[in-house]
Specification:
Elements lengths: L3 E12 L38 H13 L3 E2 L6 E4 L9 E4 L6 E9 L9 E13 L3 E4 L4 E4 L6 E7 L6 H17 L12 E11 L9 E6 L2 H20 L7 E6 L4 E7 L9 E2 L10 H8 L6 H12 L3 H9 L1 H11 L5 H19 L11 H11 L5 H14 L3 H8 L7 H14 L1 H8 L4 H13 L6 H13 L1
Helix pairs in contact: 2-3, 5-6, 6-7, 7-8, 9-10, 12-14, 12-15, 13-14, 14-15
Length: 480
């Protein structure tokens, strides 16, 4: 039997996070009443002239830098001509042969075919700037078009055909989204139509050099939808060719409810969009100073941040990932953990206790009454044996409420851990005398009975007894 391999390339369209549209001053916002954020420019009325939104140009360059792309020193705009109801000018301003950014890549976590040590890379062909179109609405007996979205700056990110499975496509798309959100380039809200994705997929006999017929799939409303579309389309193509059939270049749509792709149109030859340079816009030739200013807006990427937290603070992946998603919390943790020995314990307090208290009280990090080094001090008290982990919970609650330092709270409330052997022995003797059955059970081989007796000692000491000493003394007395 012939084995087949799949070749996948993705085109991701992302709305940029500008306040106004790309070629006019109309607001770039979601949710306004239909056809209220429009003007003669974005409606394509005769005689109007577009003016480039410089922040859109900056965000395009920034996105390119975040994606490890080359920001070209010469880019131009072109007209892509087609006639759809949602394209008010009957053409789209885009970048054809001279894009603003090109030749980049995205590294992301994926442990599958082609990955190395749990990492994969997908090359970026180009990330070019264009404009969005309006949105069609279909009713029972009529259709309408809302042009509020027409002219919104849109970044098209085209990958090389480096993707080898539906799962890899899914992880790549999520990594791409995370980078763009992290960099402040886009909110990437799929429910608001800010992100759309087209898939190009073909199959070929394993080891073959020539690509199979490219099938384009449209109408993916989510990244999981793109994965499901590929999970359906790949076996469909393999079944056709394995039975001697022939695939032709075509465009299909993904029908999510039925879980199937459907034929839209044949593409035996590329559609002639009659590209030509946009006569109303000058080519864009950024100088070194302009690019350097954009370079200052580059942030640490999510993957690099996660790897740094794991490397520099010896945190497990889940903790590091938490500080990736919650940047302010991560920054707070770093302020506490610098120079600390037990960084894992500090991360536990920040993630499990501090975050819970902030959520419970609807407070922010700026509202905290205690100083950041208070958590460091609290961990040191536990590590030194001055207080138990249980008492530390009480200290933290008081610290959060009052802002007092942990040592002050321990002293004021008399919470210091009892490590006096004589005192603990008295507690242990009392627990054994009050619970003879548990003592007998332990002597008979039931190790869990010791935990019950330890609990009784901790209860009697109001949580102050040193748990390690309690265990040692109980075991010695029962075995003796």
């Amino acid at each position: 039997m012939v084995e087949y391999e799949v070749v996948i390339g993705l085109e991701m369209h992302v709305q940029l996070k500008t306040k106004s549209k790309m070629w006019c001053g109309c607001a770039n916002e979601f949710g306004a009443s239909p056809n209220t954020n429009v003007c003669p420019v974005c409606l394509g009325l005769p005689g109007v002239l577009p003016v480039a939104n410089e922040e859109g140009l900056r965000q395009t360059a920034l996105a390119g830098l975040l994606l490890n792309c080359e920001v070209t020193r010469y880019a131009k705009f072109d007209r892509k001509n087609y006639f759809y109801p949602d394209a008010p000018k009957n053409y789209q301003i885009t970048q054809f042969d001279k894009p603003s950014t090109q030749h980049g890549y995205v590294d992301f976590e994926f442990n599958g075919l082609g990955s190395v040590n749990g990492m994969s890379r997908v090359r970026i062909t180009r990330a070019h700037l264009e404009e969005d179109v309006g949105k069609n609405f279909h009713f029972d007996r009529q259709s309408g078009v809302d042009f509020n979205r027409a002219g919104v700056p849109l970044l098209e990110i085209v990958s090389e055909p480096d993707i080898t499975s539906p799962d890899m496509a899914y992880e790549y798309l999520n990594a791409l989204k995370d980078i763009l959100v992290y960099g402040g380039v886009s909110d990437c809200d799929m429910e608001k139509g800010m992100v759309r994705c087209d898939v190009n997929v073909s199959v070929r006999p394993k080891g073959a050099k020539e690509l199979g017929a490219k099938i384009e799939i449209k109408n993916m409303n989510s990244f999981s939808g793109a994965r499901r579309a590929l999970e359906y389309e790949i076996p469909r193509q393999i079944e056709v060719v394995s039975k001697g059939g022939k695939l032709s270049q075509e465009t299909r749509r993904w029908d999510d409810p039925s879980g199937m792709t459907e034929m839209m149109r044949s593409k035996e030859q590329a559609h002639d969009y009659r590209y030509f340079p946009e006569p109303d816009l000058m080519p864009f030739a950024p100088d070194a100073a302009w690019i350097a200013a954009v370079q200052k807006r580059v942030v640490e990427l999510p993957l690099a941040r996660k790897q740094r937290f794991m490397r520099d603070y010896q945190l497990p992946a889940p903790d590091a990932q938490t500080f990736v998603w919650d940047v302010p919390l991560g920054a707070y943790f770093e302020g506490v953990a610098k120079g600390a020995k037990n960084t894992k314990a500090i991360a536990n307090w920040v993630i499990n206790n501090l975050r819970a208290k902030l959520t419970e009280s609807a407070a922010t990090l700026a509202d905290l009454k205690f100083k950041p080094d208070a958590i460091h001090e609290l961990v040191a008290l536990v590590d030194s044996g001055k207080i138990s982990s249980k008492i530390a919970q009480e200290v933290f609650a008081e610290m959060f409420a009052s802002g007092d330092a942990p040592a002050v709270i321990v002293e004021k409330k008399g919470l210091a851990q009892v490590s006096d052997t004589g005192a603990i022995e008295k507690f242990c003797d009392d627990a054994i005398a009050a619970n003879p059955k548990s003592a007998a059970d332990f002597k008979a081989g039931n190790a869990n009975a010791l935990n019950f007796l330890k609990g009784q000692v901790m209860k009697a000491s109001k949580g102050k007894a040193n748990p390690a000493l309690v265990g040692e003394i109980l075991e010695r007395k029962l075995k003796g």
